[in-house]
Amino acid sequence: MKPMIQTKTWMILFAALLALLIAAALLVSHRGTGKIANVYQDGVCIRSIDLSAVTEAYSFTVTDGKGHENLIEVAPGQIRVAEANCPDHVCVHTGWISDGLRPIVCLPARLSIQLEDTAQSETEGLDAVIG
Amino acid sequence: MKRFFLLVTVLCFLLAGCGFDAPSTVSGTSTEIVEEPSDTASVPESAQHQGELPASQPFDVRLFAMDTYMELRAYGDGAEDALQAVSSMLTELDQLLSVTDEGSEIYALNHGEGQPAAVSEQTYELIEDALALSRNLADALDMTIYPVSRAWGFTTGSYQIPSDSQLQALLPFVDDTQVVLNERDGTVRIPPSAELDLAAVAKGYAGDRAAEMMKQAGVRSALLNLGSSTIRTVGVKPDGSQWRIAIQDPQDSSGLAGVVTMGEGAMDTSGGYERFFTGADGETYWHILDPKTGYPAKHGLISVTVLSETSFLGDGLSTALFVMGLEEAVRYWRANGGFEFILIADDGSLYLSEGAAERFSPIGNYENAKMTVIKP
Questions:
Q1: Is the ipTM of this complex over 0.90?
Q2: Can you list the positions of beta strands (E) in B122-238?
Q3: Which pLDDT score, from 0 to 100, does residue B90 have?
Q4: pTM of the full predicted structure?
Q5: CA of B38 to nearest chain A CA: how many angstroms apart?
Q6: Could you count the other beta carbons within 10 Å of the beta carbon of residue B67?
Q7: Which chain B residues are within 8 Å of A25, Cβ to Cβ?
Q8: Residue B9 lies inside a defined structural domain of this protein
Q9: Using CA atoms, how far apart are residues B144 and B281, in angstroms rounded to an integer?
Q10: In CATH, what number does A34-115 get?
Q11: Could you tell me if B342 and B261 lie in one domain?
Q12: A26: DSSP letter
């Protein structure tokens, strides 16, 4: 009964995957708050960083193929655009972000960096920031 | 078996930022709809054990349109499709109203050498509404300020201080009462050398249309952030509570000044801190220009928030009240009504209309700020 074997194999595969995921979930939850920063290019997520797992600062450059460059700096619990070649430098002036309320946005490069919702005492229960 | 798969899915969302799996880019579009992992994580324990997803899942869309970054969040059945439709609408609207896009209707009008030109019904109506609002706000708002804004470099980000003679040469063309609408043939005429720019109300208008589309699609709860200074809500939060929106501290970009609770409606903020530069003379020059003088409007206010039913009104009003300054803003409110306001003066004190005061609580640096409640 070939189909039966296939179903069984799939079941085992899924069980293994589930076990793996649970293990990974436990690992993540034990590691800290899991403060995830997502980097978006034109609204599409290109990179995810767990800021709570960062122990040493590092940086990387995002380019868009149209000449825009943003140097992103990652540090424990926070992230910023350290340098950019856009004319207004709004992204650089935004400085470090460490909560999910305010994104970093570079309009010319169509780049945005946003933290997933985090329940921090100061920003708890807020749905948005206007300004 | 179905529940088992759901559980796996839930766990995947718990774990996955975007880095864990390749971004599911839909080619040709600039938006991506993602299920928010965070809210999946806040599912009550019991529900998670059963492997059930929450009744009201949030869906997010992020997009660049109208020279700004928008974040749209909607909950419940139909939210995903409605968001996709709304983001298409926003992109189309952007193409119609852009001042710089050579294919836009506004561009055609501005380069029509003073000849009347036909526009779509939608654009016609928006121009009509924008001019009516502008007329009502007298000198505080003008839809033809664009050439002056460009002289300062606020349209490109390459900031500069224009010479006084340069500004004086541009000011005669800043007068949107000279825009001629012809209802019979649906044409609009912009005088030569003048340029129409609906930016002061476009995001607000877009917010109202987006909210309308959401409601028609059956969405009962949505938070539409149209570029951080225009927020339009649909209904209340899925749990039945009010939205809580914080106002940024105008003197500290990482701080907050207060929190406003609101149901369905619009909240719009204008502040000099949004787009500004420091000149070689050490002065701060910001993007909110006084149509009378061509210079940045410095009349004692550093942040203006308007609460209103529509974001079209709130968007235009917040800019206009900023230009008016405290006394004139209060006078305008008493004469016209129909909205509430929260003003922050350059000395750090707060002025709120009675209706706004009931919904506002100061926080952070503003916890002990002087607060004046203004009665109608």
A1: no
A2: 180-182, 187-189, 221-226, 230-234
A3: 97
A4: 0.82
A5: 6
A6: 15
A7: 11, 14-15
A8: no
A9: 28
A10: 2.60.320.10
A11: yes
A12: H
